[in-house]
């Protein structure tokens, strides 16, 4: 924690470094593309080969471009999009002039979106669909679904939802290699991610991507550029979300873990629960959780002058985890809330999600019967598609001391000119230390 310390950190791409004055993003015909909403009475049968005739009635996305330079790629992709009251259906037809070079290796689910040392998520042929249901153009609101060329599925749900496999929900995919490339079909339940509870038709953000391992090309339907300007994503027009009356759902997972040694026998009982308050808001609770069966993250032994953080693997903290972190490009600051500092607790609860289309909230509280309590509260508001701000409180109480951190953050971008501000204070006898930070100047490449 930071001891009674105030700092403002700024990340700015100057007009001089770009040769522009308050630049606006040039409108590219391959950006902000639109695709119609086509609702069907009969779902397609997933064979992996798009052989079901109903695919031909779907909306079509074509003309994929190279994410690096915006030009049409040689090996094109065509995507078909359908939906009904329960699911969204996506079909990919991926042409490849050298189908013998198609690569699919990974067999472990959700591997693509796991943290890795070099940050490269694409190591084999795969396709991906991204949903922005609230059309906020904010990264924390986007759910990603990807399938590789041998059918292995990976998903990263908005806000870090689905950290526990039982909560993530099921979605299906099938693939097939052909003489001209490969094809993929996906069936994604609406229940897999949060969406606005509208009774009238609405527009959502959507995009389709493909990575070709042989050429190392990442192609995209609506070009968001290498900078990842989400406001350039595609628009799914006139979508009628499921109209069935929403019913809050409670899911409970009790457990009993027994053990025995030559000298004694043991047993541990606990329960995890998840409650969907609204389609946008979720609560999770855990009593006497057992984290001994959770695979620990491997920490590098490489020397560093600064404290290292390792990925959190405990399901309670992963569920909705992104709602508790500041979205910032100022990486030198580190994390205001680092879940690994909370040891095993006896009782924990959290609420996360959206209060409104542009307002997100995360509340977390854990309690140990030994006297320790940890609380995190975070609120974020999107003023526009490139502007947001919020507030955060992190507090620890224990028999040995207490510490409270308060944070205000603001993020603004005008075209390629970005400005970011963080204002943080801490108090308490356990604060320990201070930190100074110079304001970096960062050039956003053209």
Strand ordering within the main sheet: 14-15-16-17-18-19-20-21-22
Mean residue pLDDT = 83
* CATH fold group of the largest domain: Immunoglobulin-like
Choose one word for the global shape.
globular
Major sheet: 9 strands, antiparallel
SSE string, helices as H and strands as E: HEEEEEEEEHEEEEEEEEHEEEEEE
Q: Taking Cα atoms only, what radius of gyration do you get, to the nearest Å?
A: 23 Å
Write down the domain tally. 2
Task: Return the CATH class of the largest domain.
Answer: Mainly Beta
Number of strands: 22
Instruction: Supply the CATH architecture of the largest domain.
Output: Sandwich
Low-confidence stretches: 1-23, 433-446
Compute the number of helices: 3
- SS-derived structural category: mainly beta
Give the % helix. Answer: under 10%
Strand content: 35-45%
Determine the N-to-C terminus distance: 37 Å
